[in-house]
Predict the 3D structure of the following.
Amino acid sequence: MSWFCPSDIHRTSKKRARRSGSFHGFFMAEDHPQRLQNPKWPLVYTLLTVSYFATVALSFALHQRLMTMYTDLLEVNKAWARQLDGYSRLSRLALAVSAPGSDVFESRDPNAEAVRLSAALRLFQDASAGAERDLKVDFSGDEGPGLVPELDALRMHVEEIARSTECVFTCFRTGEIGESAELLAARDVTLLKLNACLEGLRARARDTQLTHIYGQLAIASSLTRWQTLIGALFVLLVAAVAVYGYRTSKLAAATELEGRRYLSALEESEARTRAIVETATDGIVTIDERGLIKSFNAAAQQLFGYAAHEVIGKSVNLLMPPPYRDEHDGYLRAYLATGQKKVIGTPREAEALRKDGTTFPIELSVSEMRLGTRRMFTGLLSDITARKKAEASLKAHARQQAAVAALGQIALKGSGLQALMEETA
């Protein structure tokens, strides 16, 4: 039979505990302190962090969008300013095309004026072609190409003026001065149409520019409102972070205080347990799943004659005489493998082995406990040598009393037989 043969966890009776002054199952007697609670706001912290970074990113994106719009608006305004300057130059070049028709009446040199007309017409055509090209390149959608028909009408009027001027030159060459004056009057009508076309072109360009500016300003105003909203949200997030930081600091302080109390309670519990174990009149021995001794209290040291450092870490069968020593490891392995428990119930009697090699009777109680994933076994041992001697003395006295009684009976029977024989004689 093994000492530490696991069975249903049991306790010694209160009567025996009071008698022996021991504390069996001491590891169950302490009220464990309340576990520390984890902070309850990790999700809030995560949401605040995500919202903070999202707000910053959105604010940065809006700022970039506003800057891009501002840059685009400047570029578009520069492009329209170049177009308006180009239209002013076209107006001057158109006047230069019409000027030779009037100047010929003073110079009386149609050939020289024809050269001026040809040069002015080429400059106008080049400038109008450049303006049309800039409209198609600098502006998208219908803003630029929508003005191309206006430029075409302007070129048509200039070409008509050039043809009228050529006719005036022809009349001058043939001496038909009166007819040239009539042609000059018709040219002036075309020149009025040209000026009206130029004003319409400028007005339409300005309207298109203003429409574009107002559209960009409307978008910028909308983005500014969003930026204001994001700013307010950012302020709320900062306030929420401040509140969360305050709550977290309070929780951290409370957790630290609770942790200190918890550690203090554990230390106090451990000290009480150690005091109970060390001052118990019964020996208390704790072993692990491999049967190695993990604790050996003062009473056990006095019982077995070993110091604690001599047995801790060694197999518990060191304290057992044969046959318990040979059987113990097998019993323990079988229990750990199968989980089958042998019923021990109330404390049982066994034999123990002292350091000097002598044996003595003990009363043993075994309990099982779990520390995390580990399994430990605690044995409570009492020296019952005196009790055994008393029991033996009582048995011897009882046997002596029985022998005396038997002799008395025999004596009685002998005296009765003698009286009967005398009476018969």
